[in-house]
Structures are given as structure tokens and as C-alpha cells.
Automatic annotation (TrEMBL):
Its EC number is 1.4.3.10. The keyword Iron-sulfur does not apply. The keyword Oxidoreductase applies. It comes from Meiothermus hypogaeus. This is Putrescine oxidase. Residues 11-81 form the Amine oxidase domain. It is an enzyme of class 1 (oxidoreductase).
Length: 180
């Protein structure tokens, strides 16, 4: 069987690989001059790879976790919530967890009393209903949107389950030689 896969991002490449394993003849069509979708590593700026798109493997529970080992790539583990600092407009430094919780008065960004999702509402509808936009969107929800898709196509219920998922607290892995 012949199959055309549109897009050479992570999902398109994974689909092509699965189809090929199922004995399909696969052609991948990509509009850009490169593969990778949101994965974009710049090697021209510094002596180390700079990630301009996707940057992390979020926990050992995601399907992409075994790939670096499979391809002999080095990774570095860190707890993004506790290890990554951001500089605030007043010049002070805070961890991402501190920034994400500060506005809402919470100590732990995952263990909060989020309003329940209403039926089958999208994440976009949920955010609008709870008056969360721009930087008021909690960091972990911003991460979820970035990792998965457009909030109009995401389930608010699935996003809230992600916030309460203990395995996601594990931390992140960065591919040292570049995500590309």
C-alpha cells in the first residue's frame, strides 16, 4: 500500500515510521526546506547548539524518551521548575515555579485547586472562561500548549489531568548535541 504523509515534523515522521513498519510504501511531503517541524536547532550562533523551537523531553514517561539512547545521543536531566531561572522586569531572578505560582498565591504549580473543565470544552474556552490570557496562563499550561497543539483543539480536561500528573513532576531532559 502507498501512503502520503503530509508534514515532516515529529508526528509526521513518527507516522511514517509506523506505516513503514506496517509494510506501506511511504512518501513524506514537507513544505519547508528541512525536517523537524517545531524542532529547530541553530548551530551558527554559539559553540553549543541553541534550540529555537522544541527543546526538552518532558519526563521519562513520554514516547520520545527512549530515542536519544537509541541513537546514541547524550542527554542532561534537570528539574525545569526548580533549576531554570527567569529574570523579571525588576531585575530579580526567580525559578519558573516561583514565577508561575507567585501571581496565584500557590506554592506548587501542579497541586492547586484549578476550576473544573466544563464538559467537552476546549482549553481555549477554559482559559477564556477563567480569564487567563498571555502571561496569566500558568506556566505548566503554557508548556502543555507548546508541547501538544493549538488550545482550540485541546481538551481542557486533558490539560488539567496533565497538571495533576505526578510523573510529569519528574523533570526534563535536554539533548546536549541538539534536538535536531
Amino acid at each position: 500500500m502507498k501512503t502520503l504523509v503530509i508534514g515532516a515534523g515529529a508526528a509526521g515522521l513518527a507516522a511514517a515510521q509506523d506505516l513503514q513498519k506496517a509494510n506501506h510504501q511511504v512518501v513524506v511531503l514537507e513544505a519547508q526546506h528541512r525536517v523537524g517541524g517545531r524542532i529547530r536547532t541553530d548551530r551558527s550562533f554559539a559553540a553549543v547548539p541553541i534550540e529555537l523551537g522544541a527543546e526538552f523531553i518532558h519526563s521519562s514517561q513520554v514516547p520520545t524518551y527512549p530515542l536519544p539512547a537509541q541513537f546514541g545521543l547524550r542527554t542532561h536531566y534537570f528539574n525545569q521548575q526548580e533549576d531554570t531561572l527567569v529574570r523579571l522586569p525588576d531585575g530579580s531572578l526567580r525559578t519558573i515555579a516561583q514565577v508561575g505560582c507567585q501571581e496565584r498565591g500557590y506554592n506548587n504549580i501542579r497541586m492547586v485547586d484549578w476550576p473544573a473543565a466544563s464538559g467537552e470544552e476546549s482549553l481555549a474556552e477554559y482559559l477564556q472562561r477563567n480569564q487567563l490570557s498571555g502571561q496569566k496562563i500558568p506556566y505548566k499550561l503554557q508548556e502543555y500548549i507548546s508541547d501538544f497543539d493549538n488550545p482550540r483543539r485541546l481538551s481542557a480536561q486533558a490539560a488539567l489531568e496533565f497538571l495533576y500528573d505526578k510523573s510529569a513532576e519528574e523533570g526534563d531532559f535536554r539533548i546536549l548535541d541538539g534536538y535536531d
